[in-house]
Request: fold
Amino acid sequence: MSSNNRFIVSGGDDKSIKIFDIETKKQIVYMRDAHKERISAIAVTPDNRYIVSGSGDRSIKVLSIAENQFEDHFENAHEGKITSLAISSNSCSIVSASEDNSIKIFDRITHKEIYHFKDAHEGPIYCVKITPDDDYIISSSEDNSIKIFDMKTKKQVHHFKDVHQGNYLLNHTTPNLQPRAYNNNCDQSKWRLSGVRVTRQVDKSL
Reply:
């Protein structure tokens, strides 16, 4: 979903990217064979000008919505499938997570890799987020943990261990660094992360 609520973006097992206009309820863009393998992660930049996609082919691509063509291609961005993507508020930095247990930061303007958090987790990373103030990267992994990394210093600032039973995803973050992690498998409850404390909030709606 674009931040202006004008269109929906999708990527599929058929390797294609599609954009749907919410107001007209019509498909407005169809990018066939956008990647060599299925698209496993997709995001829209906050300025609503670009679509960033990741794939099982280990690459990340940047699609210009206005030009309907790829502006950038980070080939072999990771050693494994791209599992999650996050974009900074200024639409310049791309954060990617992978099944290779690592997190990377790419600069969309200079087209270069900025930093590589090698072995960021002990298992595949399935979700990555950037806080609205662009100060922190938050990641969740199959190793049953959530980690917080400082965007400026590139240091890990905290490690939440044994967070859930089963798989889970990070849903959203708030400016005061209080992200919520949602379990999508066994333990159907919300967890609110306040600083370095983890408190459980049961959500009967899940």
Remarks:
- Confidence is low (pLDDT under 50) at residues 173-206.
- DSSP finds no helices and 19 strands in the chain.
- The two ends are 22 Å apart (CA to CA).
